[in-house]
Amino acid sequence: METPHQNHIDKADFDHVYEPAEDSFLLIDAIEKDLENLRSRNPALCLEVGSGSGVVVTAFGMAFPSTFCISTDINFRACIMSKKTAEYNKVIFDSVRMDLASSFVDNIFDIIIFNPPYVVTDSEECGGDDITASWAGGVKGREVTDRLLEMIPKKLAKDGTFYLLLIEENIPDEVINIMSNHGFRYKTVVRRKVRNEQQIVLKFYRLIY
Ligand SMILES: C[S@@+](CC[C@H](N)C(=O)[O-])C[C@H]1O[C@@H](n2cnc3c(N)ncnc32)[C@H](O)[C@@H]1O
Asked: What is the 3-state secondary structure (H, E, C) of 126-161?
């Protein structure tokens, strides 16, 4: 997969919006690793929740030109930057300021992708709408992620796939348990140690008979 160009972004803009980092690129690597499977399913609609600069959803859109891509972010500046990144890379795309995926109708997305704010912090730090929202994850670094986990069964198409990046401190086994209680199976797509952080991308899907 191609990495989207970012020459349109002023470095100072990253004071306000999450700058693409190893986790962003691990998510792109995970999608690349799953490319054949994804191509065979020909997804019509892809949502990235919390798109920040927009590099992940744009990379997806570049690899799947006939998939309509959309993203949300709680940080309005991130929505603008995501839209510019997509436009700069000639991807047809839209971005909306929204809490997670709360305002979409049910069962529409073939693919949902999330690189959440995963750093363990006090609850009070979590839940803003500025650059802090990029990383502050509250208890277990999971407060934002756990809210999305409750939305996934409704927002994902019945045969859809959800890609989620986590770190060890988020206790991935608990996430797997929550999703299993919602009827989802999982696979580990990639894992990588970055400095002292063990990053992992899981994918969740239902068995359709
Ligand atoms: C770790 S950054 C990831 C950014 C980008 N997806 C990437 O991989 O480079 C997390 C993103 O989630 C957004 N975010 C945090 N809480 C959110 C919420 N409740 N709803 C939507 N987006 C949220 C942040 O503003 C930030 O852009």
From this structure: CCCCCHHHHCECCHHHCHHHHHHHHHHHHHEEEEEE
